[in-house]
Each structure stands twice: as structure tokens, then as C-alpha cells.
Design a protein that fits this description.
- The chain has a domain of 114 residues: Alpha-Beta Plaits (2-Layer Sandwich).
- It is 29% helix and 27% strand.
- It is built from 4 helices and 8 strands; from the N terminus they run E-H-E-E-E-H-E-E-E-H-H-E.
- Strands 1, 2, 3, 4, 5 and 8 form a 6-stranded antiparallel β-sheet that branches. It has a two-stranded antiparallel sheet with strand order 6-7.
- The two termini are 25 Å apart.
Length: 167
């Protein structure tokens, strides 16, 4: 059994429903261990993009990290139905942030996610959910990384994450 951290995001359609559908699909074959609050997050000044809803999950799975990445990609394709404009309108985005303490660098998979820890919309929900989680390369906690990634206007509390588990 492995433990994975996944961040979900949506900025198009019924954003909360999209997150809930993705979590429901994840729960069919994995155990949801923890969920962060849902945050409404904003693009940095100068970027034109609708606000996202973001949430972070910790799951336990029988899949390998590679299998989980394939599962997330397929779930994203199924839910988005080919409708995403990856730069402006994203129905659903599922990012594998970390898997146990694995450090992987292949064309198909990089763990931990190489950009996630500079992104407030990833690391702040992760730190809220699991502040003592330690980045396997940087050797810093999620709470420490969140302090570095924070910027005024990054986002606001939207709803308790547990509301997404009512399916």
C-alpha cells in the first residue's frame, strides 16, 4: 500500500461538482485518508484566468505511482470530455504531487511534482491538511514551504473539504 498526495483543481463549469466527481472516482479504488479545505485561488496579477477551486487529498492505494498517474490522467480525460482549454478554462485537473517518499525522474512521471512547492494553490492546502509532511528532496515541511509560496491575493477559504465526500 502506498500513500499519495493529489491536488485537484477546476475553474470551469460547476467547479465544486467537478471536484466531487473526481474524488468519488478516486474513492472507488483508493482510501481517502485526509482532505484539505477547498480554496478559491486566483491567478497572479497580469494573468487572465478564471478563479480555481483547489483541494488537496491524501490517499492510500494499491497502485504503484506509475499506475496512479495513469489512473489520474484517464480520470481527468473522462471527466473533462476533451473540453479543457489548458490555459484558460480547466474543467478538472488532477496532479500527483508525491507518492510515499519516492523520487522519480522519467519522461512519464516526476516525483515529487517539480513545480508544486512553488505554487500557493498546491502547498497551502497541503500544509493545512498535513503541515509536518516533509518534501523528500528539499527536506522542508509543508508548513515551511507554504510560508515561502504565500503571496497576498493567492486565494481564500471556500468550503470545508469534507463537504466533497458527501456522495
Amino acid at each position: 500500500m502506498g500513500q499519495a498526495i493529489i491536488v485537484l483543481g477546476s475553474n470551469a463549469g460547476d467547479r465544486k461538482d467537478m471536484l466531487q466527481q473526481a474524488i468519488q472516482r478516486l474513492s472507488f479504488s483508493n482510501e481517502i485518508l485526509q482532505i484539505s479545505d477547498i480554496y478559491e485561488t486566483f491567478a497572479p496579477e497580469g494573468q487572465k484566468r478564471d478563479p480555481f477551486l483547489n483541494v488537496c487529498l491524501e490517499i492510500e492505494t494499491d497502485m504503484t505511482s506509475g499506475q496512479l498517474m495513469q489512473f489520474l490522467n484517464e480520470t481527468q480525460r473522462q471527466l473533462a470530455g476533451g473540453e479543457d482549454d489548458r490555459f484558460l478554462h480547466v474543467l478538472i485537473d488532477l496532479d500527483l504531487i508525491a507518492f510515499d517518499d519516492e523520487v522519480i525522474r522519467t519522461p512519464q512521471l516526476t516525483l515529487p511534482h517539480p513545480d508544486a512547492f512553488h505554487r500557493a494553490f498546491v502547498i497551502i492546502p497541503l500544509a493545512q491538511m498535513k503541515p509536518q509532511w516533509i518534501h523528500p528532496i528539499l527536506k522542508e515541511t509543508a508548513a515551511e514551504l507554504a510560508q515561502k509560496a504565500f503571496w497576498p491575493g493567492w486565494g481564500t477559504f471556500f468550503a470545508h473539504g469534507k463537504s466533497l465526500l458527501d456522495f
